[in-house]
Design a protein that fits this description.
Helices cover about 45% and strands about 10% of the residues. Helix 9 crosses helix 10, helix 11 packs across helix 13 and helix 12 packs parallel to helix 14. It is mainly α and about 400 residues long. The chain is built from 14 helices and 16 strands. The longest helix is centred in the C-terminal third of the chain and has 20 residues. The chain has a single domain, classed as Glycosyltransferase (Alpha/alpha barrel). A 3-stranded antiparallel β-sheet has the order 5-6-7. A 3-stranded antiparallel β-sheet has the order 10-11-12, with no helix packed on it. Strands 1-2 form a two-stranded antiparallel sheet. It is globular, with a radius of gyration of 20 Å.
Length: about 400
């Protein structure tokens, strides 16, 4: 099935009439670009983004035992560049996008598995628990980054060779989801009833990230992921807590019996899947989340994590709070506000976005438009962590870009 004309996040602006029309960028990339560097690998120059940058000078620093850069961050920043290049018309960023694309290709293997960490000498960390060759979180982030690279490079005929490499690596990597999806429509028992058996690594949050990438690629017209989008989206709805009258009604499980805000993109992904498949159950699922769970989160000052028991009792973890989590919430409620046009969702979106402006437990501004810095978060003692590494910087920029799209 083709993408319907109203597809919103983020594909609408990326494929509908970008051309040479330039729009003013809503973000400041100064800090993000200060984290970009390059290294020579296999007689080529690849770009990477430093993981950490500490207050007060914000010079890039390596992560001890991990490396200087990771796929997680490069994949996300490619989505920032996608908007800046294709929507805002900033073609001067194309070399950065190409360099990061080469980094992602370098960190992925010919068998579809991915590494995560790179050291400053261009060596891949193959031993760290979060960098061993796998089809997991960093692979999905890499695929999202390559999906963004695909949409960028597709607009530049002179980049046909690099586009071909991206296309081939995407198709190889995405074959890795097939063994799990082959279990559809089997279910397995859980303490909350039968749940989908085809969820990749039994991680609904990670599957929501993958679904976003599949939707983006599907809407280029060069890939047909109709079946996969349908199946993964059904899997996400199968991991939603549904109990009328319960305070957590509509919450999506991220892992086992826990919800956490970071990477919890189920609502956004389901709304994109709805616009591709026309399956209204996906929209209804996101609406239940927006009508019940989002007001609960706002009332409780946007807790970081919630664990629920089969008897309905639950435990909140209030802090720390990070931009990664806040942006996931904002993306979901902002998308349904944009799609529905209902003012109550718009108001909730603004309440969540206000975290960046100082409406948070620390009563501190978290994003600074004059520099592009987003602080790393609010610690357990309600003290602001004034460092500004890649993840927080990128998530802040993505939130600003989304707000601009939603025109809230």
């Amino acid at each position: 099935m083709r993408c319907v004309a109203v597809l919103l996040f983020p594909v609408l602006l990326l494929f509908a009439g970008c051309g040479n029309v330039q729009k003013k960028s809503p973000v400041n990339l100064d800090h993000a670009l200060s984290l970009i560097d390059s290294v020579s690998v296999n007689d080529d120059r690849i770009y990477y983004m430093a993981i950490y940058a500490d207050y007060p000078d914000y010079k890039p620093i390596a992560a001890k035992g991990e490396g200087i850069a990771c796929v997680d961050d490069a994949g996300r920043f490619m989505e920032v560049l996608e908007t800046e290049i294709l929507v805002c018309g900033n073609r001067a960023l194309l070399p950065t996008a190409k360099g990061l694309t080469k980094f992602l290709l370098y960190m992925s293997r010919a068998d579809g598995l991915w590494y995560n960490f790179l050291d400053e000498n261009g060596r891949i960390n193959t031993t760290h628990v979060n960098s061993q060759a796998d089809f997991g979180w960093w692979a999905i982030r890499g695929i999202r980054g390559l999906a963004a690279a695909y949409t960028i490079l597709k607009e530049f005929p002179e980049e046909a060779e690099l586009l071909k490499q991206v296309d081939q690596r995407l198709r190889i990597s995405l074959k890795r989801m097939e063994p799990d999806l082959a279990k559809y429509p089997q279910k397995v028992a859980s303490e909350f009833g039968a749940v989908p058996a085809w969820s990749i690594k039994s991680a609904p949050d990670m599957n929501s990230e993958l679904l976003l990438a599949l939707c983006k690629l599907h809407c280029t017209g060069d890939f047909d992921f109709t079946k996969e989008i349908q199946q993964i989206a059904e899997g996400l709805t199968g991991f939603q807590f549904r109990r009328d009258g319960h305070p957590l009604n509509g919450m999506y499980f991220c892992w086992e019996n826990t919800w956490h805000d970071w990477g919890s993109n189920q609502p956004t992904a389901l709304l994109e899947a709805f616009q591709i498949t026309g399956d209204s159950t996906f929209y209804k699922s996101a609406k239940i989340w927006a009508d019940n769970f989002v007001p609960f989160l706002i009332e409780h000052n946007l807790p970081r994590e919630i664990t629920i028991n089969a008897d309905g009792s639950y435990r909140l973890v209030a802090l720390p709070q990070i931009a990664y989590g806040i942006n996931a919430l904002y993306s979901g409620i902002g998308t349904i506000a944009d799609l529905s046009g209902e003012s109550r969702y718009q108001q909730n979106a603004e309440q969540i976005f206000a975290w960046f402006d100082g409406d948070n437990p620390a009563r501190s501004q978290m994003y600074f438009p004059e520099t592009g810095i987003t602080y790393d978060g609010i610690d357990e003692n309600e003290k602001v962590n004034r460092n500004s590494g890649a993840e927080s910087t990128i998530e802040g920029l993505l939130a600003i870009q989304a707000r601009h799209r939603f025109e809230l």
